[in-house]
Amino acid sequence: SAITLKTYEDRARTHPSPLARRLLKIMTDKQTNLCVSLDVQTKTELLHLADTLGPYVCVFKTHVDTVEDFTYESVIVPLVELSKRHNFLIFEDRKFADIGSTVKSQYASGIFKIAQWAHITNAHALPGPGIIDGLFAGTKDISEERGLLLLAEMSSAGSLATGDYTDKTVDIARKNMFFTFGFIAQSRLGNDNEDFIIMTPGVGLDDKGDSLGQQYRTVDDVVSSGSDIIIVGRGIFAKGRDPIAESKRYRDAGWKAYTARVK
Ligand code: 5IU
Fold first, then answer.
1. How many A from CA of 201 to the centre of ligand 1?
2. Which is the catalytic residue, given 6, 95, 113, 168?
3. pLDDT one-digit tens code per residue, 140-186
4. Could you confirm whether 208 is annotated as catalytic?
5. Cα(181) to centroid(ligand 1), Å
6. Nearest of 148, 140, 163 to residue 17 by alpha carbon
7. Ligand 1 test: best mutation among 37, 62, 166, 208, most atoms within 8 Å of CB?
8. I need a labelling partner for 119 at 20 to 30 A (CA). Which of 42, 105, 143, 183 fits?
9. What's the pLDDT at 131?
10. Per-residue model confidence as pLDDT tens digits over 62-86
11. Is the ipTM of this complex over 0.90?
């Protein structure tokens, strides 16, 4: 489709979402479409990976509720500092799924105060469009760009997010493209003129999956299917792997596949 043949640089000029424009510019400047998923249990590991892999990524994806020694001061403050130093965005993979009123407070307040620091977060479309209104309301007092991804498809075996559910998710996203700038998905979504950013998890070059339902596809496969950003976790930091070497490998593979697509 037309959008997939355009460069990130061109799309950075025209995207309806300020957050997406900023993201596409970072990808262009750093020549990377790699998002590393920092699924670790300690703040030391999280901050070490963010510092050492920062130069190779456009986005770091976090699950801050899995960090055992979490405090806002000792995790979020240095993570935000690293995001400025290495020029990456932070994506808290929160997967909100409640009514608008509830997600608004889950996003903006509580222990994690996600809206304060996460440039990107995500949500299930299951509750209907009110979830977007609630999350958008949670950004009211934030001066920096914020963006939301809807979960349109999942990488796990037997996912229910397919067909009609996926199509209806795209319809819901269309209502507010200033804030909802794309999808977590396995393929291109939207029509030829719509520029949704597609971020794709379930990417691995050495494994087929795990014992809990995860399924991996190659970098070439997902990028040629229309994905804009590859999300890689254990492919990069599983035991026995060298995270810096693997980050370079996935970054190079992702950029090569993108370059071939826009040629
Ligand atoms: N994740 C998926 N698949 C999905 C969605 C999210 O794997 O469909 I939505 C998350 C889960 C994990 C990361 O945080 O992406 C993938 O990690 P691995 O590359 O280690 O499998």
1. 5
2. 95
3. 999 999 999 999 999 999 999 999 999 999 999 999 999 999 999 99
4. no
5. 19
6. 148
7. 37
8. 42
9. 98
10. 999 999 999 999 999 999 999 999 9
11. yes
Reading the block at residue 224, the tokens are: 């040629």
Closest CA to 260 of 218, 224, 222, 219: 224
DSSP string, the chain: -TGGGS-HHHHHHH-S-HHHHHHHHHHHHHT--EEEEE--SSHHHHHHHHHHHGGG-SEEEE-GGG-TT--IIIIIHHHHHHHHHHT-EEEEEEEE-S-HHHHHHHHHSTTT-HHHH-SEEEEESTT-THHHHHHHHTTTT--S--EEEEE---SSTT-S--HHHHHHHHHHHHTTTTTEEEEE-SS--S-TT--PEEEE--B-SS-SB-TTS-B-B-HHHHHHTT-SEEEESHHHHSTT--HHHHHHHHHHHHHHHHHHHH-
